[in-house]
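Bug report (template v2)

What were you trying to do?
Predict the complex of my protein with 3-methyl-2-oxobutanoic acid.

What happened?
Run completed; filing so the output is reviewed.

Input:
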Amino acid sequence: MRITPNDLAAKKAAGEKIAMITVYDYPSARIAERAGAPVLLVGDSLGMVVLGHETTIPVTLDDMIRHAAAVVRGRTSSLVVCDLPFLTYASETDAVVAARRVMQETGAEAVKLEGGAAIVPIVKRLVELGVPVMGHLGFTPQSQHTLGVKVQAKDDAGAQRLIEDALALEAAGAFSVVLELVPSALATAVSQRLRIPTIGIGAGLGCDGQVQVWHDLLGLFDGKAPKHARRYAEIGTAIEAAVAAYVADVAASKNGCQKAPLAPDLKPVQV
Ligand code: KIV
């Protein structure tokens, strides 16, 4: 059975925490689903961790669609949420076109949009048209040049604005909201006020769920990992060692020859 946006509210009501993880391709979707992740986010962090850009801003709708479609092909039961990239939802018309393309061309069930009061009418319109929307408040990477990469809503006015934005997104019909780089006490308070689940990243344990970036969690990205990213493996180092062993084998003429010894424990591939 496929997880639905409504299931996430039921999980919150049942006190069950929600694990969301970003994935960007077919194999990672398969692995994340087998590992039990109920929600897969095709985040526009794609821009940095997969495409080598400095920010999410250069990511295009076509980039998101290509990767989200691969993720959808890899999953069976997890809910797939796809970010709408920078300025593809600046007007209601643009948002409708972008959401239509994402849902029709990828099969993702939901889209994620960054922002508060300014995008509430857009969220309302999408939801009225049948598009499930996840919100994103706090540090919103598409606005990083105006916000700065830092914890948001640290003063009373900022905290009040964030609470109002979260309530307005819920009233507009959003089924969940990501809280990124928000003080833990504020994220907890917002999570208690909302009926819909909050998914935190750098927002403490009081959120209804957590999201992490695949490459940060697995040690696959050698750029600077954010402080809140907890590393569960060093896959990048393991890949580097395997490729170095292969390169050394080739250099020693051990590989590329049918009779060459293979790395320990590997069986020759029949061609
Ligand atoms: O693009 C992304 O990976 C995200 C998460 C950090 C929430 O939006």
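What did the reviewer find?
The chain has one domain: 5-237. Residues 22, 43-45, 83, 178, 180, 201, 211, 213 surround 3-methyl-2-oxobutanoic acid (CB under 6 Å).
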